[in-house]
Amino acid sequence: MSDTFTALVLRETDDGPIGALEQLTDADLPDGDVTIDVDYSSLNYKDGMALSGKGRIVRSYPMVPGIDLTGTVVASESPDFAVGDAVISTGWSVGERYWGGYTQRQRVRSEWLVRRPDDMSALTAMAIGTAGLTAMLCVMAIEDAHVLPAEGPVLVTGAAGGVGSVAVALLSGLGFEVTAVTGRPETQEYLAGLGATAFLTREEMSEPARPLESEQWAAAVDTVGSKMLARVLAQMKYGGVVAACGLAGGADLPTTVMPFILRSVRLQGVESVVAPTPLRNRAWARLGRDLPADLIESMTEIVPLSQLLERGPSILDGQVRGRWVVDPGV
User: Fold this and answer.
1) What is the number of domains present in the chain?
2) What's this model's pTM, rounded to 2 decimal places?
3) Residue 310 CB partners (closer than 8 Å, separation 6+)
4) Does residue 99 form part of some domain?
């Protein structure tokens, strides 16, 4: 291990949090029982908020943001992990309460880690990241509700984002007919490459919904919330399930009980921050098996850590397509 390494550090000032690349040593790292040489991190919506100083995502300073990381264990006091193990960390308030992945080295608690699947590269793991893990948990929620491709098309909102992109690819690969909702017409070709066969605009899906509308979707993955989720619920087929995992459009839900009591629609919340380790391991194993490598590559852009302060906040404006993998080495 080298004596120093580079990290992106947010520090609080009178003018708000300011980020800069800094040279740190192991003595600067927080408490934890596993030290990791970080190969890659990724950019998620929460990371954009942290980099912008919005939403009070960061709870204390100084903070190394980045809610995801993958790398190799270089020191361990945990019986569960040994030097040389390839590991992944997502969630558990890393990058919010605890130092995260925008660094070349990090020290974390072993209970936050899972082993990276043997056939999964570090780059692939972070191309998946929290967004892909969340998408897989949504797909698993649809499967657990026993919805089959033969029952009709499925809908993915916010489809060009990280969660949406992976959800489109996974559902298409499992044989579902996928309709994608996007606010950017220029992303339709990209989404078609992931397996979407039909498209709706953000504007038409954000129109106020009637209590019930014509039945269209056997299942849905919603990353938006608010008026769009209300419209999705009103359009669900009898017995359909909506896996809701985001609130990019707002935390409110202007709906009625009608879809639930007249069509037996199910609204299943999905979260990945404190998901138990057995569920995470199951999801990562599925991701390694069900998400083709060529599709992962098509939705991924590598961003140097040195450019993240400038480029990262664009995710808040819906300008990031697919997944950004953060390379801390450049």
Assistant:
1) 2
2) 0.92
3) none
4) yes
Structure tokens at 233: 């619920």
- Kindly report the backbone phi and psi dihedral angles of residue 133, in degrees, each rounded to the nearest multiple of 5, phi listed first: -60, -45
Q: Do residues 58 and 96 make contact, with C-beta atoms less than 8 angstroms apart?
A: yes
Cβ–Cβ < 8 Å for 102, 65: yes
Q: What is the mean pLDDT of the chain?
A: 95
| Same domain for 183 and 75 | no
φ/ψ of 68, rounded to 5, equals -120, 150
Please say whether the beta carbons of 28 and 65 come within 8 A.
Answer: no
Q: Are residues 93 and 180 in the same domain?
A: no
Confidence (pLDDT) at 321: 83
Domain annotation covers residue 201: yes
255/151 same-domain check = yes
- 97 lies in the same domain as 48: yes
Kindly give the pairing relationship between strand 266-269 and strand 236-244: parallel
Q: What is the pLDDT of residue 227?
A: 96
CA distances for 29 relative to 82, 290, 299, angstroms: 19, 36, 33
Q: Which residue has the higher pLDDT, 115 or 317?
A: 115
Residue at 27 is within a domain: yes
| Segments forming the whole domain that contains residue 233 | 130-269
Q: Cβ(152)–Cβ(310) under 8 Å?
A: no
Same domain, 21 and 74: yes
Whether residue 253 is predicted with pLDDT greater than 70 in this model: the reply is yes
CB contact at 8 A, 38 and 101: yes
- Helices of type H across 276-329: 277-290, 293-298, 308-311
Residues near 118 by beta carbon (within 8 Å), at least 6 away in sequence? none
| Domain-located, residue 289 | no
CA distance 298 to 194: 8
User: Residue 107's pLDDT is what?
Assistant: 98
Contact 91, 40 (CB under 8 A): no
Packed helices 122-144 and 162-173: angle between N→C axes, nearest 10 degrees: 70
Asked whether residue 312 carries a pLDDT value surpassing 90, the answer given is: no
